[in-house]
Design a protein that fits this description.
This protein is α/β, with parallel strands linked by helices. It is built from eight helices and five strands, in the order H-E-E-H-E-H-H-E-E-H-H-H-H.
């Protein structure tokens, strides 16, 4: 897959309209069998360019870690928020993903002037916003948010692996790979698993 570097074209356009603090927002973990859905929100500094921002799924783990540290030290503001498995089961994964993004945006202080969101618009968010199709590949702020969310969630899943290594979270981070499904068949569901989520075999084998 050809890697496309995200640009600041959309952020710059909004700044020309007077929206200075433009946040990008994205979530990770939507297709997982276990673990939270985690959202990131990032307001990049117009005066501080971070080279190499791209969709987190197109980056290696080492690249994500490096960019995560640059983003969290150079951005004007950033936040992460999660919706845990029990909440996901109560509200469904789509609503949980939107809620995680809403929480992430509202955790930024001061609040952003506008929000660029990967693919969707966030309900009950009283801030100017725009859903951007393939935003994590097109928009630097959304790409940054996807990286921060991905690294945060991966670190959480590594911690869970250390607590209970039976499911192999260090390898698949909770996605429904064949070895993860085999572990569930052998050991049953843990408190980290989403009871309402039953993916078809092979549907989510690709790990983000």
């Amino acid at each position: 897959m050809v890697r496309v570097r995200a640009t600041r074209t959309l952020e710059n356009a909004l700044r020309r309209w007077g929206f200075y603090r433009v946040a990008g927002c994205d979530e990770v973990g939507r297709g997982c069998l276990a673990g939270p859905v985690v959202a990131g929100a990032v307001v990049l500094d117009p005066a501080s360019h971070i080279a190499g921002l791209a969709d987190s799924k197109l980056l290696s783990a080492a690249e994500r870690e490096r960019l995560h540290d640059l983003i969290t030290t150079q951005a004007l503001a950033w936040s992460v928020a999660a919706v845990e498995p029990a909440e996901i089961d109560a509200m469904n994964i789509h609503r949980a993903s939107l809620e995680a993004m809403r929480r992430a945006v509202l955790a930024i202080a001061p609040l952003p002037d506008a929000v660029l969101v990967d693919a969707f618009r966030i309900p009950d968010l009283h801030i100017a916003q725009r859903g951007v199709l393939h935003g994590d590949r097109r928009c630097a702020a959304i790409a940054a948010a996807s990286i921060v969310a991905k690294v945060t969630r991966d670190r959480q899943m590594l911690t869970q692996h250390a607590l209970d290594p039976r499911y192999g979270y260090d390898r698949h981070k909770g996605y429904a790979t064949a070895d993860h499904r085999a572990a569930v068949e052998r050991f049953g569901y843990s408190p980290l698993h989403r009871r309402s989520f039953r993916p078809q075999a092979g549907l989510f084998d690709r790990i983000e």
